[in-house]
Amino acid sequence: MSNNPQNPAERLWREYGAAFAALDDLTLARWMAQTLGQVQGKVWRASHPIIGLYRLLSQIGQDRHIWLKRLAAFPGAYSEAPCCRAPLLPMFTRDILEHGLICHHCGETAVAFADLPEDLRELSEPWARTYDAVHEVAHWDASQQAHHASYDEEFEKAARRAERLLGEARSSILPSFLDHYPAIIWEDHDECLEVRADDIG
Ligand SMILES: [Zn+2]
Fold it and tell me: At what angle do helices 49-63 and 25-39 cross, to 10 degrees?
């Protein structure tokens, strides 16, 4: 979710977004507000097409400061994100301890971990620490790898554990976020461990 144009994934999203560049501000604002209404009340994979569509709309919207123009009212359940004043649509990632909930609009921290409601901190912290240890395997240096007979096997095992952990987060942790936020998106992949969205059941 960085806004770094050097990032190949970011470049691709910019290319996708070009299809919507001709939208006028009012149409864009209404479409975004309507989509926020449609995603309300649910836990969403980041890979879900409606979230992808919203991301395309919102990257144009951010460039045009669409929410500051007050062209369309966003659904009342959404508060204003402190980072960029867009409606707060938070994303849960494996880096929640370090970066908190990420703003789907600007990619910055929307809610720092310390500012999360207590029940969410208690649910997320043990999960994130366990996940971190599993994720680390992808970043072992040569000497750490040498401690194991087969690094490939360790990597595979870590990837399978990561898939399970992400599945657990989805079913056991994320629904509680809906007690505090109108919708929640979760990062349903781990590029370092080569876990893809369709690996997570
Ligand atoms: Zn933001």
Answer: 140
**80 Cα: distance to centroid of ligand 1 (angstroms):** 9
- Provide CB contacts within 8 A for 15, sequence distance 6+: none
Contacts within 8 Å (CB) and 24+ apart, 154-157 = 155/193
pLDDT in tens, 96-119: 999 999 999 999 999 999 999 999
Inter-helix orientation angle 8-17/49-63, to 10°: 80
The answer to whether 89 and 78 have CB atoms below 8 angstroms apart is yes
Name which of 113, 110, 116 is nearest 90 in CA terms: 110
Which one-letter amino acid corresponds to residue 177? Answer: F
- Residue 59's nearest CA partner among 93, 13, 101, 22 is 13
Task: Give per-residue pLDDT as tens, 1-54.
Answer: 445 667 888 899 889 988 998 999 999 999 999 999 999 999 999 999 999 999
Distance 168 CA to ligand 1 centre (A): 27
Ligand 1 centroid to 153 CA: how many Å? 39
Domain extents for the chain?
8-199
How many angstroms separate the CA atoms of 85 and 72, rounded?
14
CA distances from residue 20 to 31, 34, 70 in whole angstroms, order as listed: 11, 16, 20
How many beta carbons lie within 10 A of that of residue 135, not counting itself? 21
The CA distance from 144 to 153, in Å, is 14
